[in-house]
Design brief:
about 675 residues, alpha+beta, five-stranded antiparallel sheet, 6 domains, D-amino Acid Aminotransferase, Chain A, domain 1, five-stranded mixed sheet, OB fold (Dihydrolipoamide Acetyltransferase, E2P)
Amino acid sequence: MPRRMERHEAQRRIAALSTELEEHNHRYYVLARPTISDLEFDRMMKELEALEREWPELASPNSPTQRVGGDLTKEFPTVKHRYPMLSLGNSYSREEVEEFVRRVEKENGPTTFCMELKYDGVAISLSYKGGELVRGVTRGDGEKGDDITANVRTVRTIPLRLRGDFPDELEARGEILFMRARFEELNAERARRGEELYANPRNTAAGSLKQQDPKDVARRGLDNFIYTLQGESLPTNSHYETILAAHRWGFRTPDPTRRFIERADTLEGIMAFIDHWDTARRELEMDIDGIVVKVGDLRVQAELGLTAKSPRWAIAYKFQAEQALTRLNGVTFQVGRTGAITPVAELEPVRLAGTKVKRASLHNADQVAKLDLHLGDMVQVEKGGEIIPKIVGVEVHRREPHARRVQFPEACPECGTHLVRDEGVAQHYCPNEHACPPQIIGRIEHFVGRKMMAIDGLGGETVAELVQAGLIHDVADLYDLTKEQLLGLGKGWGEKSASQVVEGIARSKAIPFEQVLFALGIRHVGETVAKKIARAVGSLDRLMALSREELMGIDEVGEVIAQSILDFFGAAGNRRIIDRLRAAGLRFEVEAAESGVVGDALKGLTFVVSGVFAGYDRDGIKAAIERNGGKVSGSISKKTSFVLAGADMGPAKRAKADELGVKVIGEEEFNRMIGA
């Protein structure tokens, strides 16, 4: 019987085995150049597993044994991204790509661009500290995502430990996906078992990453490509070079030898790359749905900045969507939470871009009229962005002689109220907002959502159940709900679920005002606009007292939004609900800590920030402007008060400032302005 190892011996052997196994894992999965047999690899893995069972305190969360899955994950906690994880602006025409290039070069001068494949998978953010994987987070809403670290560790092309000379802290952004061959294997296995086949690789990857058992995720055989790095101490300001560095550190990255990534200084070079992959994509081992074009210099990326939804330094060119021909069986008319009526085409089921399509949005009455749809028509269906089905054409020559034209209703299909359509608006609305069932349910469902009041345990089905049971009729009724009422509903309601809902409602009273404002569901007031309004006015009382002109003075509030706000607060029913929410204890004003404003030294001034600063990082100097009452803009115009210039300011921005007569100031003068 072999002698039992001493602790220090076991520690050294575990470290040696872990290092060797990760090296072989990298050679096999990332480089596709294995140097040992599967038998040898399995032998070392079994030895490591045995040692970790014997010495559990010596086992690391990033051990190679975790590739096969760890303990069950009961829930995925929500965490805030260190850097916003925004979606790219999409383009479906070469003209839009050309416009993007012209805009960048107008602001920055001659620019080197980087083109890459747009992988069709699930976006992931991977955080490393000291070379160790510490967290894997989904995109979520761009600001916060789900922590799925245990599942991420099972993806063999994601390094658990980095190699070489890497920064102490970094975030790697990439796409988790299925290679086509592995996806086909999975479906072949399901077919043998008589199970329903998976629809497409992207949806299956997303579902796989939300499995509670990491062992199930490990068995799926997911893959990964890294397409960007973020951190304070990256080795270069070139995006292309950071990708090469990421490969050296152990990541699977776009392969320049296969033209997965390429640089270009001209529009012609960008278009050549797009042309190549528009045809060659069908030969790839994974699905892509387009090409990403990025500004190649990370400093210029920082200067160009972000919009509320996407970076200004990148654009995604989407390939032409796949189309299919099918029959229009009927049209239904859905009522949304704001009363908007949306026509939906009911189709003969047809496979399109890997999924079975049965329905397609027709958007509004104008679209129905434009298509001149008749029941029984043969229609061309495509997926917009290869996600959302839509009808793009009708084969009129195949129409039956007595086919019935699709008519847009005059009355609400749910409550019978006469529909209205405001001038200049495409949508028809049902004005019966406090008695139309889908509106009631939709508004409450919106109110309790994650980005709004974040009330746990209240999804769409639960809200509908509570409305149908007569327990709630509007959002204010939520704050009168009791545990006893919920338990009285019977099946599906236990002590735990009822307590979760009641406690979640109580916690929502602490939600900041900007989220409460968004939760109210004012037509046209989305998340970003609600945030700007809340910070501009400070309280609901102040907002309700503003005139149309005063409302339009708020950033991003135009004529339509201003009128919508006036209409909302002008409705007696809405005012009664607000009074009840106020009595329930919801927050209707911005607290000083939330506003971030500490002074008004820069009140009424708009700044464009460019370059690198000695005493601030990029976000820090923008925050300093806003804390002192100023505004930050991404581009120079006649409304710009100052250009705040640091080192390496782009020459195009300085030229623009000179052209418009906008004063350029430095960091020292800025500090004097705010009294720093």
